[in-house]
Amino acid sequence: MQGNFSSACRLKVQMNLTAALEGSSLRSAGVACLSLLPALALLALSPSATASYGVSTSKALTQEARRAARLDPTFGQAGRVTLPPQPAGGAIPVLMPDDSLVIGGRTLLRLAPDGQLDESFGAGGTLTPPAPPDGDFQVEGLAVDPHDRLIVAGTSELPAGEVKPSVAFGNGTPESPQAVRVVRYLPSGALDTSFGDHGIVETDFGLPPPVDESGQPLLPKPWVKATGVAVDGEGRVVLTGGSIVGLQFGCFHDWFFNTLTYAAFVARLTESGTPDASFGGGDGVFGGHSTDENPLHAEFSDGPLVGPDGSVTYAHGDGRCPRAEGSNGLARLTADGAPSTSFTAGSTVRRWITAAALAPNGSTTVVGPVTPWYFPKEPLRARVTRIGPQGKPDRSYGHRGQTVVTTPGGPGSSLHTLAMDGRGRALLGGTMISAKAFRGPAGSAKKRHRHFFVLVRLKANGRLDWAFGPRGRIATRFGALGVNQSSLLIDSQKRAVVVGSYGRTYTAHGLVVARYLIDRQ
Fold this sequence. Notes:
Low-confidence stretches: 1-65, 165-169
Largest sheet: 5 strands, antiparallel
Strand content: 35-45%
Helix content: under 10%
Distance between the termini: 41 Å
Shape: globular
Radius of gyration: 25 Å
Number of helices: 4
Mean pLDDT: 78
Protein backbone atom coordinates (compact mmCIF):
# COMPACT_ATOMS: atom_id res chain seq x y z
CA MET A 1 0.00 0.00 0.00
CA GLN A 2 2.77 2.38 0.91
CA GLY A 3 4.64 1.46 -2.27
CA ASN A 4 1.64 2.41 -4.41
CA PHE A 5 1.32 5.71 -2.58
CA SER A 6 5.02 6.47 -3.10
CA SER A 7 4.82 5.73 -6.83
CA ALA A 8 1.82 8.00 -7.24
CA CYS A 9 3.47 10.71 -5.20
CA ARG A 10 6.67 10.45 -7.23
CA LEU A 11 4.66 10.82 -10.44
CA LYS A 12 3.03 13.98 -9.10
CA VAL A 13 6.39 15.43 -8.13
CA GLN A 14 7.80 14.78 -11.59
CA MET A 15 4.72 16.27 -13.28
CA ASN A 16 4.88 19.37 -11.14
CA LEU A 17 8.62 19.70 -11.62
CA THR A 18 8.01 19.76 -15.38
CA ALA A 19 5.35 22.44 -14.93
CA ALA A 20 7.71 24.55 -12.79
CA LEU A 21 10.46 24.35 -15.38
CA GLU A 22 8.08 25.53 -18.12
CA GLY A 23 6.74 28.47 -16.12
CA SER A 24 3.90 26.93 -14.07
CA SER A 25 3.64 26.84 -10.29
CA LEU A 26 3.77 23.66 -8.24
CA ARG A 27 0.36 22.14 -7.66
CA SER A 28 -0.79 21.71 -4.08
CA ALA A 29 -0.80 17.93 -4.40
CA GLY A 30 2.82 17.92 -5.49
CA VAL A 31 3.80 20.23 -2.62
CA ALA A 32 2.12 17.91 -0.18
CA CYS A 33 4.11 15.00 -1.57
CA LEU A 34 7.33 16.96 -1.19
CA SER A 35 6.60 17.59 2.45
CA LEU A 36 5.81 13.91 3.09
CA LEU A 37 8.61 12.40 1.02
CA PRO A 38 11.76 14.57 1.23
CA ALA A 39 13.96 11.79 -0.08
CA LEU A 40 11.75 11.42 -3.15
CA ALA A 41 11.83 15.18 -3.67
CA LEU A 42 15.61 15.19 -3.68
CA LEU A 43 15.58 12.33 -6.17
CA ALA A 44 13.16 14.20 -8.44
CA LEU A 45 15.35 17.29 -8.31
CA SER A 46 18.52 15.48 -9.31
CA PRO A 47 20.23 16.59 -12.57
CA SER A 48 19.34 13.30 -14.23
CA ALA A 49 15.66 13.92 -13.63
CA THR A 50 15.73 17.38 -15.18
CA ALA A 51 18.29 17.12 -17.97
CA SER A 52 15.68 16.34 -20.62
CA TYR A 53 14.06 19.74 -20.08
CA GLY A 54 17.20 21.76 -20.77
CA VAL A 55 17.34 23.17 -17.23
CA SER A 56 19.26 21.58 -14.39
CA THR A 57 18.85 22.57 -10.75
CA SER A 58 21.34 22.00 -7.98
CA LYS A 59 19.19 23.44 -5.20
CA ALA A 60 16.00 22.07 -3.70
CA LEU A 61 12.88 24.15 -4.27
CA THR A 62 12.66 26.48 -1.28
CA GLN A 63 9.68 28.49 -0.14
CA GLU A 64 10.99 31.39 -2.26
CA ALA A 65 11.23 29.19 -5.35
CA ARG A 66 7.62 28.10 -4.91
CA ARG A 67 6.67 31.73 -5.48
CA ALA A 68 8.34 31.66 -8.90
CA ALA A 69 6.85 33.28 -11.97
CA ARG A 70 4.41 31.07 -13.81
CA LEU A 71 2.41 31.10 -17.00
CA ASP A 72 -0.86 33.02 -16.72
CA PRO A 73 -3.71 30.46 -17.10
CA THR A 74 -6.16 33.23 -18.10
CA PHE A 75 -4.18 34.01 -21.25
CA GLY A 76 -4.66 31.96 -24.41
CA GLN A 77 -4.15 28.22 -23.86
CA ALA A 78 -2.52 27.83 -20.45
CA GLY A 79 -0.59 31.06 -20.87
CA ARG A 80 0.48 30.58 -24.49
CA VAL A 81 -0.82 31.79 -27.86
CA THR A 82 0.38 30.39 -31.20
CA LEU A 83 -0.62 32.09 -34.42
CA PRO A 84 -0.24 30.50 -37.87
CA PRO A 85 2.37 31.72 -40.37
CA GLN A 86 1.50 34.92 -42.17
CA PRO A 87 3.12 36.24 -45.35
CA ALA A 88 5.68 38.92 -44.57
CA GLY A 89 4.76 38.94 -40.91
CA GLY A 90 6.63 40.59 -38.07
CA ALA A 91 6.99 40.49 -34.30
CA ILE A 92 7.13 44.13 -33.18
CA PRO A 93 4.79 44.46 -30.18
CA VAL A 94 3.32 47.24 -28.08
CA LEU A 95 0.89 47.09 -25.14
CA MET A 96 -2.21 49.24 -25.22
CA PRO A 97 -3.57 50.87 -22.02
CA ASP A 98 -6.15 48.08 -21.58
CA ASP A 99 -3.33 45.46 -21.81
CA SER A 100 -4.37 44.34 -25.28
CA LEU A 101 -1.35 43.56 -27.43
CA VAL A 102 -0.70 44.92 -30.92
CA ILE A 103 1.93 43.10 -32.98
CA GLY A 104 3.19 44.58 -36.22
CA GLY A 105 5.01 43.62 -39.39
CA ARG A 106 3.58 44.48 -42.79
CA THR A 107 0.24 43.86 -41.14
CA LEU A 108 -0.95 44.55 -37.59
CA LEU A 109 -2.91 42.24 -35.34
CA ARG A 110 -4.34 42.82 -31.89
CA LEU A 111 -4.81 40.28 -29.13
CA ALA A 112 -7.38 41.03 -26.43
CA PRO A 113 -6.21 40.77 -22.79
CA ASP A 114 -7.35 37.13 -22.74
CA GLY A 115 -5.12 36.26 -25.70
CA GLN A 116 -7.88 35.95 -28.32
CA LEU A 117 -7.84 37.95 -31.56
CA ASP A 118 -9.69 41.23 -31.03
CA GLU A 119 -12.42 41.05 -33.68
CA SER A 120 -13.14 44.78 -33.29
CA PHE A 121 -9.70 45.64 -34.66
CA GLY A 122 -9.59 45.95 -38.45
CA ALA A 123 -10.89 42.83 -40.21
CA GLY A 124 -11.13 39.96 -37.76
CA GLY A 125 -8.33 41.28 -35.55
CA THR A 126 -5.88 42.27 -38.30
CA LEU A 127 -5.23 45.54 -40.09
CA THR A 128 -2.92 46.52 -42.95
CA PRO A 129 -1.42 50.03 -42.67
CA PRO A 130 -1.71 52.05 -45.90
CA ALA A 131 1.29 51.79 -48.21
CA PRO A 132 2.38 54.46 -50.71
CA PRO A 133 0.99 54.21 -54.27
CA ASP A 134 2.97 51.65 -56.29
CA GLY A 135 5.22 51.11 -53.27
CA ASP A 136 5.58 49.04 -50.11
CA PHE A 137 5.51 49.77 -46.38
CA GLN A 138 7.45 47.84 -43.72
CA VAL A 139 6.58 48.49 -40.07
CA GLU A 140 9.68 49.07 -37.92
CA GLY A 141 8.21 50.31 -34.62
CA LEU A 142 5.02 50.83 -32.61
CA ALA A 143 4.20 53.24 -29.81
CA VAL A 144 1.20 54.60 -27.90
CA ASP A 145 0.82 58.33 -27.21
CA PRO A 146 -0.69 60.00 -24.11
CA HIS A 147 -4.14 59.98 -25.77
CA ASP A 148 -4.06 56.19 -26.33
CA ARG A 149 -3.48 56.61 -30.06
CA LEU A 150 -1.44 53.96 -31.82
CA ILE A 151 1.66 55.20 -33.67
CA VAL A 152 2.93 52.97 -36.49
CA ALA A 153 6.34 53.93 -37.87
CA GLY A 154 8.27 52.31 -40.66
CA THR A 155 9.86 52.65 -44.06
CA SER A 156 8.17 53.25 -47.40
CA GLU A 157 9.79 51.83 -50.50
CA LEU A 158 8.96 54.29 -53.23
CA PRO A 159 8.56 53.54 -56.94
CA ALA A 160 11.89 52.66 -58.50
CA GLY A 161 13.76 55.49 -60.17
CA GLU A 162 16.90 55.62 -62.27
CA VAL A 163 19.85 54.13 -60.40
CA LYS A 164 23.41 54.62 -61.57
CA PRO A 165 25.21 51.43 -62.66
CA SER A 166 28.05 52.23 -60.24
CA VAL A 167 25.87 51.07 -57.33
CA ALA A 168 24.70 47.90 -59.03
CA PHE A 169 27.24 45.86 -57.09
CA GLY A 170 28.53 45.72 -53.55
CA ASN A 171 26.53 44.75 -50.47
CA GLY A 172 22.93 45.66 -49.97
CA THR A 173 22.40 48.09 -52.82
CA PRO A 174 18.86 49.53 -52.67
CA GLU A 175 16.75 49.36 -55.82
CA SER A 176 14.67 52.45 -55.14
CA PRO A 177 14.47 55.48 -52.83
CA GLN A 178 12.98 55.09 -49.36
CA ALA A 179 11.29 57.44 -46.90
CA VAL A 180 10.04 57.34 -43.32
CA ARG A 181 6.30 56.74 -43.01
CA VAL A 182 4.29 57.29 -39.82
CA VAL A 183 0.62 56.39 -39.39
CA ARG A 184 -1.53 57.30 -36.37
CA TYR A 185 -4.71 55.49 -35.38
CA LEU A 186 -7.45 56.55 -32.98
CA PRO A 187 -8.35 54.15 -30.14
CA SER A 188 -11.27 53.00 -32.32
CA GLY A 189 -8.83 51.78 -34.99
CA ALA A 190 -9.67 54.54 -37.49
CA LEU A 191 -6.99 56.72 -39.03
CA ASP A 192 -6.47 59.98 -37.09
CA THR A 193 -7.16 62.64 -39.72
CA SER A 194 -5.66 65.36 -37.46
CA PHE A 195 -2.22 63.84 -38.00
CA GLY A 196 -0.31 64.68 -41.18
CA ASP A 197 -2.25 64.00 -44.36
CA HIS A 198 -5.38 62.22 -43.15
CA GLY A 199 -3.45 60.22 -40.57
CA ILE A 200 -0.23 59.66 -42.57
CA VAL A 201 3.15 61.39 -42.60
CA GLU A 202 5.77 60.46 -45.19
CA THR A 203 9.04 62.35 -45.11
CA ASP A 204 12.75 62.16 -45.85
CA PHE A 205 13.40 65.07 -43.43
CA GLY A 206 15.01 67.02 -46.25
CA LEU A 207 18.11 64.81 -46.18
CA PRO A 208 20.17 64.78 -49.40
CA PRO A 209 20.37 61.84 -51.83
CA PRO A 210 23.49 59.66 -51.53
CA VAL A 211 26.44 60.55 -53.72
CA ASP A 212 29.39 58.63 -55.15
CA GLU A 213 33.10 59.40 -54.71
CA SER A 214 32.89 62.19 -57.28
CA GLY A 215 29.90 63.83 -55.60
CA GLN A 216 27.33 62.74 -58.19
CA PRO A 217 23.91 61.55 -56.91
CA LEU A 218 23.46 57.79 -56.77
CA LEU A 219 19.69 57.98 -56.44
CA PRO A 220 17.19 60.62 -57.60
CA LYS A 221 15.84 60.93 -54.04
CA PRO A 222 17.09 60.25 -50.51
CA TRP A 223 17.20 56.73 -49.06
CA VAL A 224 16.02 56.95 -45.44
CA LYS A 225 15.17 54.05 -43.14
CA ALA A 226 13.34 54.16 -39.79
CA THR A 227 14.43 51.77 -37.03
CA GLY A 228 12.40 52.75 -33.96
CA VAL A 229 9.79 55.09 -32.54
CA ALA A 230 8.75 56.55 -29.19
CA VAL A 231 6.38 59.28 -27.98
CA ASP A 232 7.17 61.92 -25.36
CA GLY A 233 4.83 63.37 -22.74
CA GLU A 234 3.62 66.08 -25.13
CA GLY A 235 2.60 63.60 -27.83
CA ARG A 236 5.59 64.35 -30.07
CA VAL A 237 6.86 61.44 -32.15
CA VAL A 238 10.56 60.58 -31.83
CA LEU A 239 12.09 58.50 -34.64
CA THR A 240 15.48 56.84 -35.10
CA GLY A 241 17.09 55.43 -38.21
CA GLY A 242 19.77 55.91 -40.83
CA SER A 243 20.25 57.46 -44.26
CA ILE A 244 22.53 56.45 -47.13
CA VAL A 245 25.12 59.17 -47.61
CA GLY A 246 27.59 57.76 -50.11
CA LEU A 247 29.69 55.02 -51.56
CA GLN A 248 33.02 53.78 -50.23
CA PHE A 249 35.53 51.31 -51.63
CA GLY A 250 37.12 48.79 -49.28
CA CYS A 251 35.56 50.04 -46.07
CA PHE A 252 36.85 47.14 -43.99
CA HIS A 253 39.98 44.97 -43.89
CA ASP A 254 39.99 42.89 -47.10
CA TRP A 255 36.63 44.15 -48.35
CA PHE A 256 37.37 44.69 -52.03
CA PHE A 257 34.18 46.17 -53.46
CA ASN A 258 32.03 49.26 -53.19
CA THR A 259 29.96 49.60 -50.05
CA LEU A 260 27.14 52.00 -49.31
CA THR A 261 27.73 54.07 -46.17
CA TYR A 262 25.06 55.43 -43.85
CA ALA A 263 24.60 58.14 -41.23
CA ALA A 264 22.49 57.69 -38.11
CA PHE A 265 19.76 60.20 -37.27
CA VAL A 266 17.20 61.05 -34.59
CA ALA A 267 14.14 63.08 -35.61
CA ARG A 268 11.05 64.48 -33.93
CA LEU A 269 7.59 65.33 -35.25
CA THR A 270 5.08 67.59 -33.55
CA GLU A 271 1.80 66.16 -32.33
CA SER A 272 0.22 67.19 -35.63
CA GLY A 273 2.92 65.39 -37.64
CA THR A 274 5.09 68.26 -38.90
CA PRO A 275 8.89 68.33 -38.37
CA ASP A 276 9.56 69.87 -34.95
CA ALA A 277 11.52 73.10 -35.51
CA SER A 278 12.60 73.11 -31.84
CA PHE A 279 14.58 69.88 -32.34
CA GLY A 280 17.95 69.43 -34.02
CA GLY A 281 19.05 72.16 -36.38
CA GLY A 282 15.59 73.68 -36.76
CA ASP A 283 14.45 71.04 -39.25
CA GLY A 284 13.42 68.45 -36.67
CA VAL A 285 16.36 66.09 -37.29
CA PHE A 286 19.75 65.47 -35.68
CA GLY A 287 22.33 63.74 -37.90
CA GLY A 288 21.64 61.93 -41.16
CA HIS A 289 24.18 63.82 -43.30
CA SER A 290 27.48 62.26 -42.23
CA THR A 291 28.70 59.71 -39.71
CA ASP A 292 30.94 62.45 -38.29
CA GLU A 293 27.86 64.28 -36.99
CA ASN A 294 27.17 61.44 -34.61
CA PRO A 295 29.42 61.20 -31.51
CA LEU A 296 30.05 57.48 -32.14
CA HIS A 297 30.23 57.82 -35.95
CA ALA A 298 27.41 55.29 -36.19
CA GLU A 299 25.52 54.39 -39.34
CA PHE A 300 22.20 53.66 -37.63
CA SER A 301 20.55 54.69 -34.37
CA ASP A 302 17.94 52.52 -32.74
CA GLY A 303 15.63 52.13 -29.75
CA PRO A 304 14.68 55.71 -28.71
CA LEU A 305 13.97 56.11 -24.99
CA VAL A 306 12.34 59.41 -24.00
CA GLY A 307 12.91 60.75 -20.48
CA PRO A 308 10.49 62.86 -18.42
CA ASP A 309 12.53 65.95 -19.35
CA GLY A 310 12.18 65.22 -23.08
CA SER A 311 15.73 63.98 -23.49
CA VAL A 312 16.27 61.12 -25.94
CA THR A 313 18.52 58.17 -25.10
CA TYR A 314 19.20 55.78 -27.94
CA ALA A 315 21.53 52.97 -28.96
CA HIS A 316 24.01 53.07 -31.82
CA GLY A 317 24.43 50.22 -34.24
CA ASP A 318 26.66 49.26 -37.12
CA GLY A 319 25.42 49.44 -40.68
CA ARG A 320 26.33 47.29 -43.67
CA CYS A 321 29.91 48.51 -43.67
CA PRO A 322 31.62 46.66 -40.80
CA ARG A 323 33.33 49.09 -38.49
CA ALA A 324 35.23 49.09 -35.22
CA GLU A 325 33.54 48.15 -31.97
CA GLY A 326 33.66 51.78 -30.90
CA SER A 327 30.69 52.66 -33.11
CA ASN A 328 28.40 50.69 -30.79
CA GLY A 329 27.08 52.23 -27.62
CA LEU A 330 24.54 54.54 -26.04
CA ALA A 331 24.02 58.25 -26.60
CA ARG A 332 21.77 60.96 -25.22
CA LEU A 333 20.35 64.12 -26.73
CA THR A 334 18.82 66.99 -24.83
CA ALA A 335 15.17 67.91 -25.34
CA ASP A 336 16.17 70.32 -28.13
CA GLY A 337 18.07 67.65 -30.07
CA ALA A 338 21.67 68.48 -29.15
CA PRO A 339 24.26 66.09 -27.67
CA SER A 340 23.97 66.07 -23.88
CA THR A 341 27.19 67.43 -22.42
CA SER A 342 26.33 65.98 -18.99
CA PHE A 343 26.15 62.41 -20.32
CA THR A 344 29.87 61.49 -20.10
CA ALA A 345 32.37 62.84 -22.61
CA GLY A 346 30.82 63.35 -26.03
CA SER A 347 27.33 62.29 -24.87
CA THR A 348 28.10 58.59 -25.39
CA VAL A 349 28.75 55.32 -23.60
CA ARG A 350 30.66 52.72 -25.64
CA ARG A 351 29.22 49.24 -25.19
CA TRP A 352 27.71 46.39 -27.21
CA ILE A 353 23.96 46.81 -26.67
CA THR A 354 21.01 44.69 -27.79
CA ALA A 355 18.33 46.29 -25.59
CA ALA A 356 17.98 49.20 -23.17
CA ALA A 357 15.43 50.40 -20.61
CA LEU A 358 15.15 53.83 -19.00
CA ALA A 359 14.27 54.35 -15.32
CA PRO A 360 12.36 57.40 -14.01
CA ASN A 361 15.49 58.71 -12.26
CA GLY A 362 17.34 58.92 -15.59
CA SER A 363 19.47 55.80 -15.20
CA THR A 364 19.59 53.33 -18.08
CA THR A 365 19.93 49.57 -17.88
CA VAL A 366 21.37 47.87 -20.95
CA VAL A 367 22.07 44.29 -21.97
CA GLY A 368 24.45 42.98 -24.60
CA PRO A 369 26.89 40.17 -25.26
CA VAL A 370 30.20 40.21 -23.41
CA THR A 371 31.88 39.83 -26.81
CA PRO A 372 30.26 39.90 -30.26
CA TRP A 373 31.80 36.53 -31.16
CA TYR A 374 32.12 33.42 -29.07
CA PHE A 375 33.19 29.80 -29.34
CA PRO A 376 30.02 27.95 -30.44
CA LYS A 377 30.50 25.12 -27.95
CA GLU A 378 30.63 27.54 -25.02
CA PRO A 379 27.57 29.29 -23.52
CA LEU A 380 27.12 32.90 -24.54
CA ARG A 381 27.44 35.40 -21.72
CA ALA A 382 25.32 38.55 -21.46
CA ARG A 383 26.47 41.71 -19.69
CA VAL A 384 23.86 43.80 -17.87
CA THR A 385 25.01 47.33 -17.01
CA ARG A 386 23.27 50.10 -15.13
CA ILE A 387 24.35 53.52 -16.35
CA GLY A 388 23.60 56.49 -14.11
CA PRO A 389 21.94 59.73 -15.24
CA GLN A 390 25.36 61.23 -15.98
CA GLY A 391 26.40 58.34 -18.22
CA LYS A 392 28.72 56.59 -15.78
CA PRO A 393 28.27 53.00 -14.52
CA ASP A 394 26.37 52.79 -11.24
CA ARG A 395 28.93 51.05 -9.03
CA SER A 396 26.26 50.02 -6.52
CA TYR A 397 24.87 47.66 -9.15
CA GLY A 398 26.37 44.19 -9.48
CA HIS A 399 30.16 44.32 -9.62
CA ARG A 400 31.23 47.88 -10.34
CA GLY A 401 28.07 48.62 -12.29
CA GLN A 402 27.58 45.41 -14.20
CA THR A 403 26.47 41.79 -13.90
CA VAL A 404 27.49 39.00 -16.26
CA VAL A 405 24.87 36.28 -16.75
CA THR A 406 25.64 33.00 -18.48
CA THR A 407 22.96 32.18 -21.00
CA PRO A 408 21.07 28.96 -20.21
CA GLY A 409 21.29 26.33 -22.93
CA GLY A 410 23.69 25.46 -25.70
CA PRO A 411 24.78 27.02 -29.01
CA GLY A 412 22.23 29.44 -30.42
CA SER A 413 20.91 30.43 -26.99
CA SER A 414 20.92 34.09 -26.00
CA LEU A 415 19.65 36.70 -23.58
CA HIS A 416 18.97 39.77 -25.70
CA THR A 417 15.92 41.66 -24.38
CA LEU A 418 15.05 43.27 -21.07
CA ALA A 419 12.31 45.12 -19.23
CA MET A 420 12.26 46.85 -15.85
CA ASP A 421 9.50 46.05 -13.36
CA GLY A 422 9.32 49.49 -11.72
CA ARG A 423 11.23 48.37 -8.61
CA GLY A 424 14.65 48.43 -10.19
CA ARG A 425 14.63 44.73 -11.07
CA ALA A 426 15.70 43.75 -14.57
CA LEU A 427 13.83 40.98 -16.34
CA LEU A 428 15.97 39.44 -19.07
CA GLY A 429 14.49 37.49 -21.95
CA GLY A 430 15.89 35.29 -24.64
CA THR A 431 15.93 31.87 -26.24
CA MET A 432 17.29 28.68 -24.71
CA ILE A 433 18.20 25.75 -26.94
CA SER A 434 18.96 22.35 -25.46
CA ALA A 435 20.01 19.15 -27.22
CA LYS A 436 18.89 15.67 -26.22
CA ALA A 437 20.73 12.68 -27.63
CA PHE A 438 18.75 9.77 -29.08
CA ARG A 439 19.30 6.79 -31.36
CA GLY A 440 18.16 7.04 -34.96
CA PRO A 441 16.41 4.25 -36.89
CA ALA A 442 19.76 2.82 -38.02
CA GLY A 443 21.22 3.05 -34.53
CA SER A 444 23.21 6.21 -35.25
CA ALA A 445 23.52 8.81 -32.52
CA LYS A 446 21.58 12.02 -33.20
CA LYS A 447 20.50 15.10 -31.31
CA ARG A 448 17.06 16.64 -31.04
CA HIS A 449 17.11 20.35 -30.27
CA ARG A 450 14.42 21.83 -28.06
CA HIS A 451 13.65 25.53 -28.06
CA PHE A 452 12.41 27.50 -25.05
CA PHE A 453 11.54 31.03 -24.15
CA VAL A 454 13.70 31.78 -21.12
CA LEU A 455 13.33 34.53 -18.51
CA VAL A 456 15.87 35.54 -15.87
CA ARG A 457 15.42 38.20 -13.20
CA LEU A 458 18.07 40.30 -11.48
CA LYS A 459 17.43 42.02 -8.17
CA ALA A 460 17.64 45.79 -7.86
CA ASN A 461 21.27 45.40 -6.75
CA GLY A 462 22.14 43.39 -9.89
CA ARG A 463 22.32 39.97 -8.26
CA LEU A 464 20.54 36.95 -9.70
CA ASP A 465 17.07 36.55 -8.16
CA TRP A 466 16.91 32.91 -7.07
CA ALA A 467 13.26 33.37 -6.02
CA PHE A 468 12.21 33.87 -9.63
CA GLY A 469 12.36 30.20 -10.60
CA PRO A 470 14.60 27.13 -10.62
CA ARG A 471 18.15 28.53 -10.68
CA GLY A 472 16.61 31.96 -11.09
CA ARG A 473 15.02 31.33 -14.48
CA ILE A 474 11.82 30.17 -16.15
CA ALA A 475 11.78 28.18 -19.40
CA THR A 476 8.73 27.71 -21.63
CA ARG A 477 8.30 25.46 -24.67
CA PHE A 478 5.87 25.73 -27.55
CA GLY A 479 5.85 22.05 -28.41
CA ALA A 480 8.24 21.21 -31.22
CA LEU A 481 8.31 24.76 -32.61
CA GLY A 482 11.72 26.37 -32.98
CA VAL A 483 10.85 29.67 -31.32
CA ASN A 484 12.90 32.86 -31.36
CA GLN A 485 12.16 35.62 -28.91
CA SER A 486 12.02 39.19 -30.14
CA SER A 487 10.53 41.36 -27.38
CA LEU A 488 9.74 41.45 -23.68
CA LEU A 489 7.13 43.76 -22.15
CA ILE A 490 5.53 44.31 -18.72
CA ASP A 491 1.83 45.26 -18.68
CA SER A 492 -0.15 47.40 -16.25
CA GLN A 493 -0.82 44.36 -14.02
CA LYS A 494 2.95 43.72 -13.72
CA ARG A 495 2.69 40.60 -15.89
CA ALA A 496 5.52 39.77 -18.26
CA VAL A 497 4.57 39.39 -21.93
CA VAL A 498 6.99 37.65 -24.28
CA VAL A 499 6.54 37.88 -28.06
CA GLY A 500 8.51 35.84 -30.56
CA SER A 501 8.31 34.01 -33.83
CA TYR A 502 8.83 30.57 -35.31
CA GLY A 503 9.57 29.33 -38.79
CA ARG A 504 12.54 29.12 -41.10
CA THR A 505 11.81 31.97 -43.50
CA TYR A 506 11.23 35.66 -42.96
CA THR A 507 8.39 35.83 -45.47
CA ALA A 508 6.24 33.17 -43.82
CA HIS A 509 6.64 32.75 -40.08
CA GLY A 510 4.19 32.46 -37.23
CA LEU A 511 3.94 34.32 -33.94
CA VAL A 512 4.07 32.98 -30.40
CA VAL A 513 3.16 34.88 -27.24
CA ALA A 514 3.44 33.90 -23.59
CA ARG A 515 2.25 35.80 -20.51
CA TYR A 516 3.54 35.24 -16.99
CA LEU A 517 2.28 36.03 -13.54
CA ILE A 518 5.20 37.34 -11.51
CA ASP A 519 5.34 37.48 -7.72
CA ARG A 520 5.54 40.99 -6.32
CA GLN A 521 7.61 40.27 -3.24
